[in-house]
Every structure is written in C-alpha cells, then in structure tokens.
C-alpha cells in the first residue's frame, strides 16, 4: 500500500505546484526581470556582488580556518547546470529509457524555477533506483566528470583551509563521496532523498530542498564560519553574509578563462580507475546527439564486426578504416629465430579488441589468452581465444603449448585501464618465452567506452565499435634482447618490469603497482573473479 500512497502524494504535489504556485512565481519573475529569457536557462541572471572575487583571496595563514562552500555547481564546478550529472546517474544507473525520459523533460525544465527543476530531475532520475547502485555510481563514475569540470581557483581556495564544509541543494548522495574522497571535505550538508526499503522513491525527504542559509545557521549555531565561498547570484549573498569573510566565484570569468581549468597533473588524487559507458559530459545538446546517433551506431557496430569475422585481413582493415575507424600503426613484423616456438606479443591492455586489431594489422593469425571472456565475445571473435584458470602452473602449461603451436598474444596487466597508466605486469609470461615482442596499444573514443567493471562485458566490443570515429594506436616495439630475458639470467619480475617501462615510455604513460584486484575492489566492490559452479 505504500507505493500507491507515494504516487498519490506526488500527483497532489505536482498539481499544486504546477497549477497554482508556478504561475504566481512566473508572473513575478517576468515582471521583475522584464521578460529576461536568460533566466529560463540553468544559469541565473548575473547580479552585482558586494563581495570580492576568489582571485583576491589571500592564501597565507588559512590552515586553522573553517571554510564553507555554497553549493558545488557554479562554485566548485565550472558548469552552471547540474543536469549532466543527473543524466549520468539516469543512464548509468537506470537505463537508456530513463535517460531518454530525462532528456525529453528538458522543455518542461526550462519553464520551471530552480526548486521545481531539481525536484523533477530528482524524481525522474531516482524513482525506483536501488541505493547500492547510486553508491557505486558516486564512487566509480561521477568523480571522473567532477574532476574534469573542477574550478582550479575554487579548489585552491578550498584546499587552503583546515576545516571544510559544503552546503548544496543537490542530492547529497550525488556529491558526498567525491567531496570527501577527493577534496577532503569534512562534512557535506545537502538535500536528502526519501527511500522505501533499498529503493529511492524519487521524492525529497520531509525537510525538502535544502535552504543553504538556514542549514548554515543550524550547523554552526551562533558561531560564524571564518570563510565563505559562493557564486555571484543573489541567492548566495544571504549565505555569504553569515560568514566572517566571503568571496564569490565569477562564473563568466571562469567560463572564458583557461586558467580556471584543472589540469590533470594538479588533480587532488590521480584518476586511474573509473567506470561507466559514457565518455562525454551529457549536456542536453550532447545527450540529444547521442540518442540520435544510437540506432546508427548499433548498425555500424554490427557492420564493423562482420568485417572482421568474414573478410580477409587486408579487406577488413581497408573497409574498417573507410567506416570511420582511425588506425595508426608503427613498427614492423619481427623475424622469428626459433622454428619450434612462436613469438610472444606482450601488449598494454585497453579493450577486449586489442588482440583482434593487432592480428588484423599484422595480417597474421594470433591466439589470445584471457582470464575472463563472455560467450558472446568468444563467438564473434575472429581469432582464436583460450581461457586461463588463474592457476599459475596450469596457465603456464597452457601458454607453453600454445607457443609451440604458433604466435601468442598476452596482456599481462590482466585487465583494462582507460587512463594513461599501466598496471602491474604479471611475470608469468617472462618464464615461458625468450622471443618477446612488446606492443604499445592505446585507444581513443568520443562517445562510449568499450570497457566496464560492473556492466555487461559482452557489450564491450559493441559499445567501442558504436563510436563514430574510434581510434587505435599500435606500435610494435623491437624484440627484447636475449640478455634482458630469463634466458640471459634476468628474473621474471625484472623482465616484466622492464617491458612495462618500455611500453609506458612509448605511450607516455605512467607505471603503477596497482593490480586487477585493486581496480575491481574500487569500481565494483569485488575482486573481479567470476566463480563458476563445479
């Protein structure tokens, strides 16, 4: 009976807000702003500020001060609208249909005020969403987009203070994990969502949308925080007036200045792992383009898969490039010195298609070994694939047998990494072969990622090939000198570390000691091992 009551409450609230309250507020705004249509966008009209800009902030002696930030968008983030982040949650946590519904609501959102807009986006995004799914999204997907959109000036001001508190009107569950994990914020006060069991109802809790100036008073009582940072809108001025010292972020200056963009080398924490399918920030226009492209992308992915499965190497390569795949090949085919053993190609790992593209570019059949591969990927793979068991002895015997039969491809990282880092290399391959050829592989996509830690892996190749112009960079390095292999007296770990460094230098990447287990524990909360029933 609880769910029907929730629907009745929602219908009653929508009718009241839309038919009565919204018309009155809209009339006042039209009169006040003189039909200023810019107000209908997500960016409020600029207001003259009596507070200095963050550019005039003095960084010295702030370690013992308490700083409060008034919201995350327009202050800590350079974006004026939080719509793209709701879209990310709807697409990655809900479904493509939920994301489409959110996009179709844009015309309605444009005529609503800030409070109603947040309520509608929250309902569409969160209604029926599991709470643990939102926890996963806030941990594995959203931080990447927050970091890329972080305002450098605002972050430097925030990082200078000893104690930090952020007040935000957006749902707390969307920002708390990022603010605490990456920006070292001590407390986050935001809008709370109503839940029914382990599901979100899509409604706000009884306290409603957070009134930031009231929340500031409730949190600090009669004590005034030392420093306040907010936007130049009139709504934030009341909040900033409650602080001893206040600064504003000028949104127009931040938007037009490249100095406010956070460079990767200044990220609070290195961004090594992240999940999700979308490779772009889904603003309304970008999301519209994505949905328009989606049916064409599916047909194009099927066409590209058929090219690799049915046609010879030369034709598949030529027609693949003609279909929009950008392939950059460097290096030459190594000569084989031992007649009774194949060449071992050691690759950096970006997608499941790495061995396929390598085999096509070299125009020779290769065998790929993998720890986990879906049945669908095995069926559509144009090359031979062999599963490993994670038993070092058995896997070693399998790889030795395969090397006697022909050339072999191995990705010793054991899993993919999207960012410019190389994970720790397993040393097993170094014990099995003396003819080792490192292959530096990198990819670039503009719309969809072809890897996932928590989604359906069988769709990984399809999503990669759905990109309008996916890019593959393959550089075949020289054969490892025999004196640097195990046959030359080196240990397997030394050989693995040497090859990792050679590949990192070729790609401009950074070596790490992180493993597959570290990736899956962070992104999916498990060790990335699928247990099969005996």
UniProtKB/TrEMBL annotation:
<protein>
    <recommendedName>
        <fullName>Phospholipid/glycerol acyltransferase domain-containing protein</fullName>
    </recommendedName>
</protein>
<dbReference type="Pfam" id="PF23270">
    <property type="entry name" value="HAD_RAM2_N"/>
</dbReference>
<dbReference type="InterPro" id="IPR002123">
    <property type="entry name" value="Plipid/glycerol_acylTrfase"/>
</dbReference>
<dbReference type="InterPro" id="IPR056462">
    <property type="entry name" value="HAD_RAM2/GPAT1-8"/>
</dbReference>
<dbReference type="GO" id="GO:0016791">
    <property type="term" value="F:phosphatase activity"/>
</dbReference>
<dbReference type="GO" id="GO:0016020">
    <property type="term" value="C:membrane"/>
</dbReference>
<comment type="similarity">
    <text>Belongs to the GPAT/DAPAT family.</text>
</comment>
<keyword id="KW-1133">Transmembrane helix</keyword>
<keyword id="KW-0812">Transmembrane</keyword>
<dbReference type="GO" id="GO:0010143">
    <property type="term" value="P:cutin biosynthetic process"/>
</dbReference>
<feature type="domain" description="Phospholipid/glycerol acyltransferase">
    <location>
        <begin position="343"/>
        <end position="444"/>
    </location>
</feature>
<keyword id="KW-0012">Acyltransferase</keyword>
<feature type="transmembrane region" description="Helical">
    <location>
        <begin position="312"/>
        <end position="329"/>
    </location>
</feature>
<feature type="transmembrane region" description="Helical">
    <location>
        <begin position="286"/>
        <end position="306"/>
    </location>
</feature>
<dbReference type="Pfam" id="PF01553">
    <property type="entry name" value="Acyltransferase"/>
</dbReference>
<dbReference type="GO" id="GO:0090447">
    <property type="term" value="F:glycerol-3-phosphate 2-O-acyltransferase activity"/>
</dbReference>
<keyword id="KW-0808">Transferase</keyword>
<keyword id="KW-0472">Membrane</keyword>
